[in-house]
Amino acid sequence: MLDGAVISQTLDLAGERCADPTPLVYARLFAAHPDMEALFIRDTDGSVRGEMLTRVFEMILDFVDRRAYGAQLIQCEVVTHEGYGVPPTVFGAFFASVADTVRGLIADDWTPTMSEAWRTLLIDLNWFADHPDQMAPAAFG
Ligand code: HEM
């Protein structure tokens, strides 16, 4: 089961340890997908990367709680990002970079419960990235 309280707790803890994890997250993403870095050519000062990551953290907090818009946002972004040249499959790698960064910041305080919460969260986030068609019958959950 997805434990939203544990996810929020890990994001709080990671936030206490690192005011701006943007460089860490994107370094992991670009290590796994070097071809993605060039797509940020217009982001000369890093603000697009920062804004995007902020939106992703907000989306995750919604996704694990009220889920008012988080699932639909993933689906929309998969479609809009195709216009930037981002393949839908890279969403999973991006979410994994976020998870690995959070785990890295929590380091020795990381617990099996946190691991399990993030493992489940990644499966659930990826489901929406893999199924961006909002008109398709709702088969999730
Ligand atoms: C749910 C996941 C995602 C969300 C919510 C999201 C959100 C956003 C937002 C809001 C922007 C515009 C930021 C601004 O102009 O200030 C943006 C831009 C961008 N995103 Fe994402 N994004 C997501 C996933 C990804 C992934 C997986 C990639 C892969 C590398 C990616 C690549 C880009 C690029 C290249 C731009 C800049 C496009 C340009 O040149 O204007 N995004 N994203």
State the end-to-end distance. 11 Å
Count of distinct structural domains:
1
Biggest sheet character: none
| Count of DSSP H/I helices | 6
Chemical compounds bound to the protein: protoporphyrin IX containing FE
The helix-and-strand class reads mainly alpha
Using the 3D structure, state the CATH architecture. Answer: Orthogonal Bundle
Q: Report the radius of gyration as a whole number of Å.
A: 15 Å
Integer average pLDDT: 96
Sheet-strand content, in percent, reads under 5%
- Overall geometry: globular
Examine the coordinates and then state which fold CATH places here, giving the name of the CATH topology. Answer: Globin-like
Please outline the helices and strands.
Blueprint: H1 4-17, H2 22-32, H3 47-63, H4 70-82, H5 90-106, H6 112-130
The chain binds protoporphyrin IX containing FE.
What does this structure look like?
With 141 residues, the chain is mainly α. The protein has one domain (4-130): Globins (Globin-like, Orthogonal Bundle). Helices cover 65% and strands 0% of the residues. It has six helices and no strands. The protein has helices at residues 4-17, 22-32, 47-63, 70-82, 90-106, 112-130. The radius of gyration is 15 Å and the shape is globular. 22% of the residues are buried. The mean pLDDT is 96. The structure holds protoporphyrin IX containing FE. Protoporphyrin IX containing FE binds next to helix 3, helix 4 and helix 5.
